[in-house]
Amino acid sequence: MIKEGQVEESKETTHLSVIDGAGNTVSVTTTLNGSYGSRTVVSGAGFLLNNEMDDFSVKPGVPNMYGALGAEANAISPGKRMLSSMTPTIVLKDGKPCIVVGTPGGTTIPTSVIQSLVNLVDFKMTAEDAVNKPKFHHQWLPDEIYVEKGFDKSTVKALEAMGYKVVEWEQIGRTELIEIKKGNAKPITAIADKRGDDSAEGY
Length: 203
Ligand code: DON
Fold this sequence. Notes:
The protein is an alpha+beta fold. The chain contains three helices and nine strands, in the order ββββααββαβββ. The protein has a single domain, classed as Glutamine Phosphoribosylpyrophosphate, subunit 1, domain 1.
């Protein structure tokens, strides 16, 4: 018998970073948007419809469920553009994929992806550190900087001294990243974010 209960539903977005034996890569982020999407199951097909309309702006000055603030350009009408943050990314070097990356996380998606890339490319971190080191996030409004536990304390102090409000957040993104280094003894490194129950598999 199936009974009702308190089921903890995880966040609604999933990201996959994939590479095959021939070097083809796929970066895909798929989402229901909100919890259970529109809460409508397609009869006979068994899947939920999303509520992605929330990524448009219902009216100027009213943020969506992730706090993203749009205007006329993002209205729910033809020819307008939604505020989606989804950022499935493939970085090319000499025309060939060298990094495959993406994450769920609403408005924190682009900040998680860019920080992972900057960590890897500019700060020369390992792929594992690039994904797992504490991240920060700012999305214009609310005018606050979110940092994960373990974020460098001196940086937080310096930001606060400049007048920024810094708020600790439990989790910023769940980034799945593949680094491809042609010519290396171990050319593929796949990192599953330790923030979640993510996994990296090779076949
Ligand atoms: O497209 C967007 O930006 C949102 N629909 C993404 C929602 C999301 O990542 C929620 N889960 N973590």
